[in-house]
Every structure is written in C-alpha cells, then in structure tokens.
Amino acid sequence: MRPVSALVFHICPRGDFEAARAIGMHRPASLAHEGFVHLSQAHQVGPTAHAYFAGVPDLVVLVVDPVRLKAPLVYEPPAPLASSTPKPASDDLYPHCYGPIDLDAIVDVITLDEWRERGER
C-alpha cells in the first residue's frame, strides 16, 4: 500500500503542458488510447524518461499531489515498452491516473534536465 500523500510525477513535452493550462486539465493521448495517464514514483522518473522519451526535446516533469486528483490513482505493473527492447523484470508498481490530471493537482513543473541536475534520477 502506498501513502496517499506521496507525490507522483508525469513526464511530457512542455507544449502538452501549455495546452493543458489552456483547457484547465492535462489529458495526454494515453488517456484516450489506454484509459489512463502514465505516472511515476520519484525513483521511476529517470528510467521512464530513458525508456520512453529518449531524444524527445523540451520535456517537463509535472509534480502531482494525488490527494488533489479527482480521478482514481492506481498502482499497477508497468506498461510494455513500445520498442523491441524488453523492460527489465521488476515487481515495481507504477501509478496510473484513470482520468485527466486536474491543474490544481499539479504542484510544480520542472524541466527534465533540472530533475536530473537535482540528482532525482
């Protein structure tokens, strides 16, 4: 069981977040295609960025307070990689939000480069 107040994180292009600000919520493509928004725990941000966002410019990390989410947050096994590279076996669970991320649940936005500089990995 995860503490409800533990922050979770979502990686996305800066432009996607700017679009979210215009409509009042973040609705990434995964919500329409898979039914949920992919999130990470702090220790998962680096590996997720490496596996899914290699070479994508201008990424930001949305810092999300799950207590402020209106949609359910569920911890589940990771989604498979789109590439043929297998993801390492792990019992680690990833947070998935089954609805849009409300802007008031986003408590901070930092660049992925800044995340790495802080040593958050």
Defining traits:
ADP-ribosylation fold; 121 residues; three-stranded antiparallel beta sheet; globular
Question: Could you explain the architecture of this structure?
Answer:
This protein has one domain: Alpha-Beta Barrel (ADP-ribosylation fold), CATH 3.20.170.20. The two termini are 23 Å apart. It has helices spanning 14-23, 29-34, 45-52, 112-117, and strands at residues 8-13, 25-26, 37-38, 59-64, 73-76, 94-97, 101-102, 106-111. Helices cover 25% and strands 26% of the residues. With 121 residues, the chain is an alpha+beta fold. The protein has a three-stranded antiparallel β-sheet with strand order 1-4-8. It is built from four helices and eight strands.
Broad CATH class = Alpha Beta
Q: Compute the separation of the termini in Å.
A: 23 Å
The domain tally reads 1
CATH-defined architecture = Alpha-Beta Barrel
Number of strands: 8
For this structure, the CATH topology is: ADP-ribosylation fold
Measured on Cα atoms, how large is the radius of gyration? Answer: 14 Å
**Strand order within the widest beta sheet:** 1-4-8
